[in-house]
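Table S2 (continued). Query chain:
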Amino acid sequence: MPKNYFVTGGAGFIGSNYVSRLLERGEKVTVYDNLSRAGAPRNLKWLQETYGEKSFKLVIGDVRDAGQLAVSAREADVIVHLAGQVAVTTSVVKPREDFEINALGTFNALEAARLNERKPVFLYASTNKVYGGMEDVQVVECNGRWEYESLPFGAPETQPLDFHSPYGCSKGTGDQYVRDYYRIYGIPTVVLRQSCIYGPRQFGVEDQGWVAWFVIAAVMGRPITIYGDGKQIRDLLHVYDLCDAYDAIIQNIDKVKGEVFNLGGGPGNTMSIWTEFGPKLEKLLGRPVPVSWGDWRPGDQRVFYADIRKAERELGWKPKIGVDEGVRRLFEWVAANRNFF
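Corresponding output:
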C-alpha cells in the first residue's frame, strides 16, 4: 500500500529529488514549501511537468506557521523535514530569522507529528555543523589538503556536540528535539547529520551549496572567491545516495527509530574545496578557472568527513556514486540547463 509522505521543503534541492523518487514509485505525496528558495519554483514546475500537476498535493506554507503545518500533516504516515534556513553566513546576519525557521520550525513539525494519530515516521535533515569546529581533534596538512590526524574513518556520531554559529545552534536545537520526541513521546524519529550533499536541481549560491556554486559559476563565467586556503576537506554525498539512505531508514524504522546517523560521502569521497576540486572543474570545463581569495568564514572547519560505518552496519547503506562521477554528472546538468542560471 502506498504511504502518505509529507515533505517540508519538498520544492528544494533535496526535497524535489526525493519527491521525484516517491512519485516515480507511486507514493502519495504532499509538498509543503513556501517557495522562497532560489530554484524552488523551477523545481516545482519540473515535478509538475514530469509527473502531472495532480500527481501530488502542494501546500504553499511556512514551517513557522504551526497551525497550518499541523493541519496539513495530519494524514501523513511519513514526515521528511527538509525545510530550513541553510546558510551559516545568513544565520550570522539574521540570527532571529534563522532560529525561527530552523529551531521553532522543527519544533512545529514535531508537534504536527505528535498531534497526528498515525504516529508518523519523522526524518530530520540535520547537519555536521552540530559538531562545531572539533577543536579537540588534531588536523594535519598533507599533500595540499587537511586531514584528521587520528580519525581515519571520519567523525562518528559519538563526536561531542559543539554548536557553533547561530546556524549550528538552530539546527542543533532541532536535532536534539527530534531525538527527544522519540524518548518522551514515542514518535519514531531519526536524525540525519548530513554532509555536503550535491547533485542535479541544486541552485547553489556562494553562501551555501559550494559544489554546485563552483560548477555554476565556472560554466556561467561568474567570479569565484575561495575563502580560507582551499585545502579544506569535505566528504561529498550525491543526492541520489542520500535518497537511498532515506528509503533504507523508513524501511528499517522499527530497528533504527530514535537513532542518529552521519550521512556523508565518507573517507572514500573526500575532496579539498579548491586544491583538488579546482583542477577537476578546469578539466571538465576545458579552460582555467580564475579565482580570488578571502579570509576564513565563521564556523568553517578545516576538515569534516563523516564516519558512515553505523549507517553501513545498521542500514546496509553506503554511497554508490563516486565523487568523480557525481561531479561530472552535476557539471553536465548545469551545462545543459544554462537558462536556469
